Amino acid sequence: MEPEEATLPPPGIFLEVTCLKAYRSYTVRPRLPENLAPLREIAMNLRWSYTPDARELIRRVDPQLWEESGQNPIAMFGMVEPARWQDLAENDRFLEHLDRVREGLDRHLRAETWFEENHPESGGTVAYFSFEYGLSEALPLYAGGLGVLAGDHLKSASDMGVPICGVGLLYQVGYFRQYLNPDGWQQEEYGESDFHQMPVEQVVNEQGAPLSIEIPMGERVVRANIWRVQVGRVPLYLLDTNIPANAPADREITYQLYGGDLEMRIRQEILLGIGGIEALQRCLDRPPDVFHLNEGHAAFLVLERVRTMMVEHGLSFQEAVEATRVGNVFTVHTPVTAGHDSFPRALIERYFGSYCRQLDLSLDEFMRLGADACEDGPDSFSMTVLALRFSAWRNGVSELHGRVSRRIWHHLWPEAPDDEVPITSVTNGIHVGSFISDDMAALFNRYLGSGWRTEPGDASVWDRVADIPEAELWRAHERRRERLIAVARRRLHDQLKNRGASAQDLERAREALDPEALTIGFGRRFATYKRATLILRNPERLKRLLTDRDRPVQLLFAGKAHPDDRPGKELIREVVHFARDPEVRSRIVFLENYDLHLARYIVQGVDVWLNTPRRPLEASGTSGMKVTANGGLNCSILDGWWDEAYSPETGWAIGRGEEYCDEERQDDVEADALYTLLEQEIIPLFFDCGEDGIPHRWVAKMKRAMQIICPQFNSNRMVGEYVERFYLPGMRRSRAMADADFARARLLAAWRNRIDASWPRVRFASIGDNIDEAACSGDEIIVRAELALSGLAPDDLQVQLHSGTIDPAGRIIESKVTNMRHIGSSGGDKQTFECCIRCEGAGQWGYTVRVLPSHEDLVSPIDTGRIRLAS
């Protein structure tokens, strides 16, 4: 989808003005002619934001006001003059366009979906919780990748018909608008949102009054109104505490995304987790079966679900945990410590002192639910640990991140091998239709058909990229680069003007960058681990590349640092100062206020997307996926999604996935590898053009990247994985737990208590086999293990033989697991288990025996934390 350039107001100084307080407030909506009334219905469903025909219809109302409104249709409608409305009401072509878009929306909402076709008997629903949502420029409720991913998740869930609803907070100011001072230092500016001028609608009760909830919070009760955003078929419910019924301090809870101190954060997370559960009870006919937590921000919901079960069904705490855990899905999105919220005991006592008594827990017992002694000590409460302990389904957001997460959180399951820590992975993906340029979309429609939008996970659709003529693909890409350069020049000029730059500098801005140069983009949050300045590490070597007249190269940077991240701000300043060097200032720019709008221009127009995180700190990343869909190529450290996506056919890898102890050494080595790639591979390939001016080998690489990456790294594939691996099993298990007055939950809790009581006395009495001094290849080895079960039944346990070749330290290298069968009692509480294995090769082999609890209602036996190894 092609973004239009919006006019942004310059930063300035705002004087506080004393204004009269309104006696009464009310909403005034623009009066649309009757035949234009469907425009509001279209604008209130965010499907318009990723449907080109609908977006163009809204823009046609008034192209200039569309830009001035920040591409917010509801705000724009209030700015349109009555005469313009009358003209449109009498414009047959506009009315035909309106009918076409309205019919398209109706057809979409009525059509049979992937979910209905593949899972018609599911009968359950999912609630998706996120601290931020990046759906559209018209709804600034996001800061970065987590929010954009949440938006893409809801969009694909709508496209696929997944029965899901979102839950979040409605922030008054959202995230900040970035601008730089004359020294290149980031400044933050906040603008308040008028929800009545946005595509969000207040939920009302039967009497037409705002529907609200009440949440005990410390010594006060906080009230929150509920708003609703419609994303295709999917509703998103947002909570707002900025209402007169609340104390001033409580009205601020939903004031700012990622603002305030630690106490503000715990209050926001109580509102999201506990308040979110209450909001769903008020808005839905029946409670969801599955709750999907993204990061630990919403983790208090797992406790509220437990408390609700205890109150409504008379369950004990442990019984309620078993009844709810199977319906909790937790996705951890970062390996960076700062991304995991922890609260001190004093804050927990202040806000949960009475709440923990409702759970029949002491404060000490409550603290242990989130205790992460390995990291924070016993007096700190980790939201991530709480979510991990109370969820049956856990995942990272790329294969590498899954491995890293298992290593980071191994201490919660200390007796499990690394590869059995119960955290898996679902690699992120993008909603392709939200980020594709109009030029590329036109090519895809012509040569791929509609499948690239409706079935983006179908590899056969993307195979047809081979049918796109090279000249057409290259020209479409060149048009997007030209458009990016035009926008960059205009924004650079406005930035410099706002900083008070000279007339000479303003004139140079109009000529910055070259529409025919190899354009390398870097756009993301300026956190130190992302290493935005790695490419600046050898300035002279970089200058030689940027100043080459025969093979011109240019760099385009954009991104925000967190307001409290001084090192991140230093990185932005370093880029800006380097860009002022007279030798390179026409070849490198930093564009302010990186957001969804600017991001579309950049991912649609760059030739190469540069990504230089410090492995393995990039959980996934999705910007590079958007670049690929638009014909760009990736050059990245093998981290996050690129670690599994990279092949020599699809782009370039910086290094081979090494991890370093010495960061200075790492930066030197990887900067050198980057320069070498640019000098020896990337730049020569880009400028290796045929007589027709087309770099044929480069275009071939563009095509292969699309064919390989696009069908895998899209949010339809991602949502489909969540549905089939977590949501559907979670629905089935949740309903099973609830059947017959929660009989299975009660039995599982009783069984777990019995395991906990007996486990310390479970031991190996003896282990034997039929091996003499050695075995020969092909021989069968019979292994028997005698265990003292301390009153447990054989069916309560799973006894496993782990066998394989061993290293010089006696460790099994690649273990093969064989379940041992119970063959009888050997007297008292001792039971014997046996299995047979075949010798499959020569060399040093070995085995060991392991015992775990076993129950049909356990998602993973590792969850019990009980493992006994032969010793």
Describe this structure in words.
This protein is α/β, with parallel strands linked by helices and 871 residues long. It is 40% helix and 18% strand. It is built from 31 helices and 29 strands. Strands 1, 2, 5, 6, 7, 8, 9, 10, 14 and 15 form a ten-stranded mixed β-sheet that branches. Helix 12 packs antiparallel against helix 31 (715-758). The protein is globular and about 95 Å long.
Total of helices: 31
Radius of gyration: 29 Å
- Let me know the largest β-sheet: 10 strands, mixed
Name the overall outline.
globular
Q: Which class of secondary structure composition applies to the elements?
A: alpha/beta
- The fraction of residues assigned to DSSP E strands is 15-25%
**How far apart lie the N and C ends?**
62 Å
Low-confidence stretches: 4-16
Q: Which percent range fits the helix content?
A: 25-40%
E-strand count: 29
Average of per-residue pLDDT values: 94
